[in-house]
Design goal:
With 322 residues, the chain is an alpha/beta fold. 34% of the residues lie in helices and 15% in strands.
């Protein structure tokens, strides 16, 4: 059984597609089922992630066997020196070698403001001849406009969207979200309202579900569980919730001990991919216009705080399903 991607025609036209985790941490793992499906079809696909592994960029660490493109963009492979830190990109590269005897490069963007990230994307586009970018979000907070009652953790997502929105030389720029309902502190009724607006504006491109019978899903699950088994690789709540959903669990089910003591609500919504035209998502984002000249993440936080303090929020609402 294969993944029924509604955006397959667009992706198939790319000679070098970049799938990039937009929010950091384990976001790139949410793009793996798409990566495996496209590779099965013979397409050339590259992987990148906005990384939380700051040790990658530490000059004092002297990490061996990386591919440095800039001071804030490096390629990681299975041969990169292993360090006792949070480093899911490295263990994913090692999994590719172990599972398929394949050396896959994971391109790691350091968390910065928009200007350095844009420069890094331009560098990687030139290096790999990229003609399509699919930004991947673990969860759906990348769809927040900025006036929701609760909007989750939108900082890194906003930086990624802002940077990629400026890459007008790339013909295809899309956003994919996976894991709806897995995030806390987010107004899902408002996110659904945003999706309705995107549909009305022509920016919603369709959805599809992961099933446990799919080989692309099975590879993703194996990769995630392998990486999460290593010390200091704090399990991803969103990816663990996605796996729990695909496996048919429901309600307060805990795949990892990290969530014990909290109340989860695993549901089939978490196994659905949602796809969007990036330019339309960017147009509805109320933060972006103030972020384009930021250099650091601190600059981004300062600008976003100003906007949130001066802009009224939508009234909290619940989804009337029960």
């Amino acid at each position: 059984m294969n993944l029924n991607l509604p955006i397959l025609n667009q992706l198939s036209n790319c000679k070098n597609l970049l799938i990039a985790g937009m929010g950091g941490g384990f976001d790139i793992f949410c793009g793996l089922p798409i990566y495996f499906e496209l590779r099965r079809l013979g397409l050339k696909v590259h992987l990148a992630n906005l990384t939380f592994s700051n040790i990658v960029f530490s000059k004092s660490a002297k990490i061996e066997r990386t591919i440095p493109l800039t001071e804030t963009l490096v390629g990681i492979t299975c041969e990169t020196e292993e360090l006792p830190v949070y480093f899911p990109e490295l263990y994913l590269a090692q999994w590719f070698k172990k599972e398929f005897d394949e050396t896959v490069t994971l391109w790691c963007f350091k968390k910065t403001g928009v200007l350095p990230l844009l420069a890094n994307y331009n560098q990687l586009i030139e290096h790999l001849s990229i003609d399509g970018i699919l930004l991947i979000d673990g969860g759906v907070d990348s769809l927040a406009r900025g006036d929701e009652a609760e909007m989750g953790t939108v900082t890194e997502d906003a930086v990624s969207i802002a940077a990629v929105s400026k890459l007008t030389q790339v013909p295809l720029r899309l956003i994919g979200c996976l894991g709806m309902g897995a995030e806390r502190d987010i107004s899902h009724a408002h996110i659904l309202e945003n999706i309705a607006f995107l549909a009305n504006s022509g920016g919603f491109l369709g959805s599809c579900s992961l099933l446990k019978q799919m080989q692309s899903y099975q590879n993703y699950e194996k990769a995630l569980l392998y990486v999460q088994s290593f010390p200091q690789q704090e399990p991803s709540i969103i990816n663990s919730s996605i796996i729990s959903s695909v496996q048919g669990n429901f309600g307060d089910y805990h795949l990892t001990s990290r969530t014990k003591g909290s109340k989860l609500w695993i549901s089939p919504l978490m196994s659905i991919y949602w796809f969007f035209e990036l330019s339309v998502v960017a147009e509805q984002n109320l933060f972006l216009s103030q972020l384009f000249l930021t250099e650091t993440l601190a600059d981004v936080l300062q600008e976003m705080l100003k906007i949130m303090q001066n802009r009224p929020r939508r009234i909290a609402d619940k989804i009337p399903l029960s």
